[in-house]
Prior knowledge:
By secondary structure, this protein is α+β, with helices and mostly antiparallel strands. It has a single domain (3-124), classed as 2-Layer Sandwich (Alpha-D-Glucose-1,6-Bisphosphate, Chain A, domain 4), CATH 3.30.530.20. 24% of the residues lie in helices and 43% in strands. The chain is built from five helices and eight strands; from the N terminus they run ββααββββββααα. The protein has helices at residues 25-33, 35-39, 133-141, 144-153, 155-159; strands at residues 3-9, 14-21, 49-54, 61-67, 73-84, 88-96, 109-118, 121-130. The model has no long low-confidence stretch (mean pLDDT 96). It holds the Pfam family AHSA1. Residues 23-159 form the Activator of Hsp90 ATPase homologue 1/2-like C-terminal domain.
Amino acid sequence: MPVTDVTHDLETRTLTITADFAAPVARIWQVYADPRQLEKVWGPPTYPATVVDHALEPGGRVTYYMTGPDGEKFAGYWEISTVDEPRSFAFADGFADEDFTPNPELPVSQNVYTFTEHDGGTRATYTSTYETAEGLQQVLDMGVIEGATSAINQIDVLLAP
């Protein structure tokens, strides 16, 4: 299991997940840079993702939906703010309606994903910051820790030869 640590802090409104992979930084970067690979790891196994648009560049947008076991679709988007290939990227991640219009009823997180060399592989740090403690608590109640952990742990399967 690649996820080695999960912490959340309502005071700072952050959720941080750390994972270690037995692959070089450039390979982990490709998981996020390639929409077909991203589909295999974005969302927990029972809610597979379909990436519709993918522009991993400053000012770019990624749109996707996850399909639940009963066929219900849950849409979301990333608005990319910075990219430092292959080391990091930052983006807003939000919930959306079926045509990818942001849903103002649900919280948006500001995310920074970083990839650094560590013990011959890559340490990935996924940090999400919410505007309010209530927003963070809302996604915690929705199961974000379990969902994100199971999604990230799928990366090992993708990396297997």
